[in-house]
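[audit] Reproducing an earlier prediction to check determinism. Same input, same settings, fresh worker. If the tokens differ from the archived copy the diff job will pick it up downstream; this log only records the rerun itself.
[audit] input (75 residues):
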Amino acid sequence: MTDPNEWLKRLITDALARTPEPANDTGEPEEPAIEPAAMSLMITRQQRARLRELGWTDDQIREMTPDEAHRHLAV
């Protein structure tokens, strides 16, 4: 019978093997590259309803860009 934890041991071993080495002389790992933020393309009906609950008028919502709306909603 094989060890029931063998898959876990293998998973941890594989993950440790992929851990990057420190890239500078300080021994600190390099900061990961920052991914560009996703661009908001639209305001959904649910988001519009939530904006109304937060006190925004239909006219104000209509004038908002999706990015502005999502910032107000903390999306």
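[audit] rerun output stored. Observation attached for the diff report: The mean pLDDT is 79.
[audit] end
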